[in-house]
């Protein structure tokens, strides 16, 4: 074992594991899990092996992990379906609209661990908007999650059994700015490390502002169309090669018209 930022990790790390080097904007470790929910409403072992083996590492010495992750993804997937249906209704599009639009979605589960802060309260996940359609966040009772509201950081205190629901960039683009992607960050303290998970819904096809919020309302599209994968490549590059000038930062405004 070696200690990185206060967290012990095995030398040989599984696929899907990531930690950012010291000095990065984000200072946490994470593991990714993905499962396709297309073929069957319930998770099966083959869902986890089918094309997603790269990001699904189940540690042999934690036999309960796989069971828990499968149940968690199933539960979060159903919750996402419900929320998408409520948002679709709220937008006046009918309950199944987003489900259809998002038919081929990818739903990664990111499990995060933030080491204790070294000096005082420190920013561990830099302020950002999620690239997703929506994200469901579960946090332990450490605290530190904040959302920017009216130019002030507001604590989102952990509540047992509650999830934080974030609107992401894709919903902002689809709704032509009717829904706004939430700016959030995570602070950590010297007392405790923090654990959380984020379950995102990401589209696989071309993303455009929907005609229901543009041509049908006589309003211009606020964004040009783009493929989610291309957007992700730019965002991931931000993390490994932080841009020197703020205007080079790849965020959803790069697609603004
Ligand atoms: O750890 C958290 O509570 C949030 C993580 C987050 O914002 C993200 O992964 O995008
Ligand atoms: Fe986030």
UniProtKB/TrEMBL annotation:
Annotated Gene3D superfamilies: B-lactam Antibiotic, Isopenicillin N Synthase, Chain
Annotated GO MF terms: metal ion binding; oxidoreductase activity
Signal peptide region: none
Entry keywords, A to Z: Iron, Metal-binding, Oxidoreductase
Domain of life, per lineage: Eukaryota
Record-linked InterPro entries: IPNS-like_FE2OG_OXY, IPNS-like_sf, Iron_ascorbate_oxido_reductase, Oxoglu/Fe-dep_dioxygenase_dom
Residues annotated as domain Fe2OG dioxygenase: 105-203
Family: Belongs to the iron/ascorbate-dependent oxidoreductase family.
Listed name of the protein: Fe2OG dioxygenase domain-containing protein
Organism: Taxus chinensis (Chinese yew)
């Amino acid at each position: 074992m070696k200690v990185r930022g206060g967290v012990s990790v095995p030398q040989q790390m599984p696929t899907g594991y990531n930690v950012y080097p010291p000095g990065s904007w984000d200072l946490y470790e994470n593991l990714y899990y993905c499962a396709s929910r297309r073929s069957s409403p319930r998770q099966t072992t083959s869902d986890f092996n089918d094309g997603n083996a790269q990001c699904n590492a189940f540690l042999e010495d934690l036999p309960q992990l796989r069971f828990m992750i499968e149940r968690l993804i199933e539960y979060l997937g159903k919750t996402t379906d419900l929320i998408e249906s409520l948002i679709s209704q709220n937008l006046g599009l009918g309950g199944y609209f987003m489900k259809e639009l998002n038919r081929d979605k990818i739903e990664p589960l990111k499990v995060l661990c933030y080491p204790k802060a070294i000096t005082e309260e420190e920013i561990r996940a830099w302020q950002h908007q999620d690239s997703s359609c929506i994200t469901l966040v579960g946090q332990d009772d450490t605290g530190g999650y904040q959302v920017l509201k009216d130019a002030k950081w507001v604590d989102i205190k952990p509540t047992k059994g509650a999830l934080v629901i974030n609107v992401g960039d894709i919903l902002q683009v689809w709704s032509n700015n009717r829904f706004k992607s939430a700016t959030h960050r995570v602070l950590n303290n010297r007392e405790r490390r923090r654990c959380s998970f984020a379950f995102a819904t990401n589209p696989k096809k071309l993303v455009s502002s929907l005609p229901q919020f543009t041509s049908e309302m006589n309003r211009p599209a606020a964004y040009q169309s783009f493929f989610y994968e291309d957007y992700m490549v730019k965002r991931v590059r931000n993390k490994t090669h932080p841009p020197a000038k703020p205007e080079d930062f790849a965020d959803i405004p790069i697609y603004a018209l």
